[in-house]
Every structure is written in structure tokens, then in C-alpha cells.
Specification:
By secondary structure, this protein is of the alpha/beta class. The protein is built from ten helices and seven strands. Nicotinamide-adenine-dinucleotide (NAD) binds next to helix 1, strand 5 and helix 8.
């Protein structure tokens, strides 16, 4: 039987702070396939996340097909806006949610993984994070600062992660990120430079695939997911309408699940995906293929 087998592989999923988003579903799918999984969690959300875990509030969603609960090998603090601790401004470093976490930068994460597991302990890295402080503003009204923050946190962070974590990933390993169609087509309401960030992320996926492929023998792909009501997506303000619209106008009319994105990431990260790199894979019920709204002609 052909199956996704990640036994003996180690994964890091950056961007998990609850059980409601793609990062969690990807972590679970990787664990279902046999990988050991660590996560990177944004410091402002870290306490709430570990409390919910300890108090058993996520036990239902952590339940795996073998009846055991999904375990995280490590939970690392990570603010992907900063490459080094010195890059973080004072008010962040001294903030009560940050000050006791140790080095939460991408370099700090890299050092901790090296200390915990050795020089080349990883096989899979997943980038499942984004933030655009002005996402509700149209691009025309977005400030330079808002735009640059969106691109820095949501796109450059992938470049920095491949650059710093790449040497820790064993040959044949894989990086996967999450993008959205707003990087290539207009999605009204997805503002603040987030569309620009996704365009950069998709372009960088191709260039990083070439560079990390030649340098380390690694693969880099991105999943273009359809709209899904995660915590981050709820910040857009119109996510429920986006989900409804896609269901009404896609070739497949049932709503997208996080599990569908999770298993695609597990496949891409597995040896079964060894020939795939530099690619944007759509997991959106086929919405990207449509050129006209089904609802406009009263279809169902
Ligand atoms: N939900 C959707 O409709 C949708 C569609 C396509 C793509 N995506 C992408 O999927 C990815 C995951 O998002 P999600 O929708 O599953 O929501 P989510 O809320 O589960 O994940 C976003 C995560 O990013 C983290 N984060 C924010 N700023 C950070 C920072 N500076 N450093 C580290 N972590 C930070 C948040 O704490 C959160 O855990 C994102 O890249 C998002 O753009 C989402």
C-alpha cells in the first residue's frame, strides 16, 4: 500500500497558537504520518496556548486516529518579525509577554533547535504564519509602515527561515508555506499589503527552491489555500462571507477543511513529493479555476 510515511522524521511548524488554524492541522497530519513535531508560537499567544493544552481544552482536536493525543516535542517562542534578538525593539524585549521567553527571534529558534537536537536534526519546516496590522484597510489607504510590516512578517520571514534553518535540515527535506490567491488576483477586503506579501511569498518560493535546492538539496513549496475561518482570517472581518462565496462558486461546493490542507502539506513534505519544488499547490476546492461566478447565472 502506498502511504505517507514520516516515521523517524522531525518537523517544525511555525505559526501554531490554537487548534483552529492550518498550522495545527498540518502538525496533526505530520504526526499522523509518524513525524515528531515541534511548533513555533508567537509570544503574545504562548501563555494562552500552553494553558489550554495543559488544561485539556484541546484534547478533542488533539485526538489522533490511534486514540493517542497529539504531542508536541517542543513549543518554541517565535516572533518571525525578528531575525535576531537585537533586532527587536526595547519595548518588545521588555514586554511582559516576551521578557521571560528567552531568545524568540528566528536566530534564537535556530540555536535552540541545534542545542536540543544537534547540528542537522530537521526534515520538515512549515511556515504557517502571517500578520498585516492594516489588513482591513484598502491598499490605497495602507501606510508604508503597515505595508512593510505585512511583507516583513508574512513573506521575508520565510526567506529568513530558509536561510537560517536550511543548514539544519537534512538533504531531501522540505519547506512548505501557506499563501492565498490574493497574491495573484484581486480579493476585495484583503488589504494592508497582505496581497503584496502573498505575491512576494509565491515568488520567493520559486527563487528559494532554486537556491536551497542547489545549496542544501531541499525543496520549497507553497500551498494556496481557500478561505477558512481561522483566528487570523477572522481578523480580515469578512471571512464568513469569503467562505460562503467560495463554496457557492467553486467546482466542489462543500467548504474547505483544515485537514485537507494538513494532508497536502504532509504529502508535499514526504518522500512522495521528492519531485515537487518551487510550486504553488492549490487546495481550494478548485476555486482558482473559475472565471465567472456561478451565482451570477443562478447555477448551483
Ligand atoms: N485562513 C485562511 O483563509 C487562509 C487562506 C490562505 C492562506 N492562509 C495562510 O495560512 C497561514 C496560517 O494562517 P491561519 O489562517 O491558519 O491562521 P492561524 O491564526 O492559525 O495562524 C496564524 C499564526 O501566525 C501567528 N503569528 C502572527 N504573527 C506572528 C509573528 N510575528 N511571529 C510568529 N507567529 C506569528 C499567529 O500567532 C498564529 O498562530 C497564514 O500564512 C495565512 O495567511 C490562510
Amino acid at each position: 500500500m502506498l502511504s505517507i510515511d514520516l516515521t523517524g522524521r522531525r518537523a517544525l511548524v511555525a505559526g501554531v497558537a490554537d487548534d483552529g488554524g492550518f498550522g495545527f492541522a498540518i502538525a496533526k497530519a505530520l504526526a499522523e504520518a509518524g513525524a515528531s513535531v515541534s511548533v513555533g508560537t508567537w509570544p503574545p499567544a504562548l501563555n494562552i496556548f500552553t494553558n489550554l493544552l495543559e488544561r485539556g481544552k484541546m484534547d478533542e482536536s488533539r485526538k489522533m486516529s490511534n486514540g493517542e493525543l497529539l504531542q508536541f516535542e517542543r513549543i518554541y517562542p517565535l516572533d518571525a518579525a525578528y531575525d535576531t534578538l537585537a533586532d527587536a525593539p526595547d519595548d518588545i524585549r521588555t514586554n511582559k509577554r516576551y521578557k521571560d521567553t528567552g531568545d524568540f527571534s528566528i536566530e534564537g529558534l535556530t540555536n535552540r533547535i541545534r542545542q536540543d537536537f544537534g547540528e542537522q536534526p530537521l526534515d520538515i519546516v512549515v511556515h504557517s504564519l502571517a500578520n498585516g496590522p492594516e489588513v482591513k484597510k484598502p491598499l490605497l489607504e495602507t501606510s508604508r509602515n503597515g505595508y512593510l510590516t505585512a511583507v516583513s512578517v508574512s513573506a521575508y520571514s520565510l526567506v529568513a527561515m530558509v536561510s537560517r534553518l536550511g543548514p539544519l535540515v537534512r538533504r531531501g527535506g522540505s519547506f512548505v508555506s501557506l499563501t492565498y490567491m490574493a497574491g495573484e488576483r484581486v480579493i476585495p477586503g484583503y488589504g494592508g499589503g497582505m496581497s503584496s506579501a502573498k505575491a512576494a511569498l509565491e515568488s520567493d518560493t520559486r527563487t528559494l527552491a532554486y537556491e536551497a535546492g542547489r545549496k542544501y538539496g531541499l525543496r520549497v513549496n507553497t500551498i494556496s489555500a481557500g478561505p477558512f475561518a481561522s483566528r487570523a482570517a477572522s481578523a480580515i472581518g469578512i471571512i464568513d462571507r469569503m467562505v460562503e462565496y467560495c463554496a457557492a462558486n467553486s467546482p466542489l461546493s462543500d467548504p474547505l477543511t483544515a485537514e485537507e490542507v494538513g494532508v497536502t502539506a504532509a504529502f508535499l513534505s514526504s518522500p512522495l513529493g521528492s519531485g515537487i519544488t518551487g510550486t504553488t499547490i492549490y487546495v481550494d476546492k478548485g476555486y482558482h479555476t473559475m472565471g465567472m461566478a456561478v451565482t451570477a447565472i443562478g447555477g448551483d
